[in-house]
Amino acid sequence: MQRRTPVVTPYGGESETKKEQVGRMFDRIARRYDVLNRLLSLGIDLYWRRKALRYLKNAPRPLEILDVATGTADVAILAAEMLKPCRVVGIDIASQMLNIGREKVARKGLQDVITLQSGDAEQLHFADESFDAVTVAFGVRNFEHLEKGLAEIRRVLRPKGRVIILEFSHPTVAPFKQIYHLYFKYVLPVVGRLTSGDQRAYTYLYESVQAFPQGNEFLDILNKTGFKHLQCEQLTLGICSIYTGVKG
Questions:
Q1: Whether the Cβ atoms of residue 62 and residue 130 lie closer than 8 Å to each other
Q2: What's the structural domain count of the chain?
């Protein structure tokens, strides 16, 4: 039996929805987000993103890609550079993250390929079958209604289109499992709070990862949502996982 995923929000019992709280949280930490990602992951997050996108390098090459929860556009930029598509659209609910992403896209000279716009994963403003591939990096655990967001992703994919999801998971190898748990629960929130100025952002990161369905449990949800040919690859002793699927 599939367990009910608990709803974890950045700021607890406030009147805002999870979606509203997540957007506000990322807007608050936007200016320090990239620096913190590199610092707290020792730069390995870039390797994870590249590894995930390599799943799209096999034929047929995607010509139009949607990057959901694009943040500051790391994946959108990598996709444009690695895959040479005709179009990449990145969407996010946090306007400040998008502003920084646009600055990065401009510095790379990729404005003709990449478009960043405000958008909600659970209400995608695109026609059915608009994209060859959809990517989501460290964003699905922030969906307020997980299956609704996944169903929207499936809707905008073309037949046989591919979804690539990169998300944190739980290490399984001792003693690394215990060491990482202590780092993730106690050290990372303190560093994040001192650096980002938001007391809850990196505590929420830990809590949301603990609550998120992982491995076969998440593959079951993808299957239920209509994706086939599902795979899960764990990276860096299980710190994060790549989930891949094809629109059935």
A1: no
A2: 1
Element (H, E) at 147: helix 146-156
3-state secondary structure 194-206: HHHCCCCHHHHHH
Q: Name 120's bridge partners.
A: 123
Separation of alpha carbons 119 and 102, rounded Å: 15
Segment 192-208, tens digit of pLDDT: 788 787 878 888 988 99
Amino acid residing at 177: K
Here the CATH number for the domain that contains residue 178 is: 3.40.50.150
**pLDDT tens, position by position, 207-239:** 999 999 999 999 999 999 999 999 999 999 999
How many whole angstroms separate alpha carbon 241 and alpha carbon 239?
7
d(CA 196, CA 216): 34
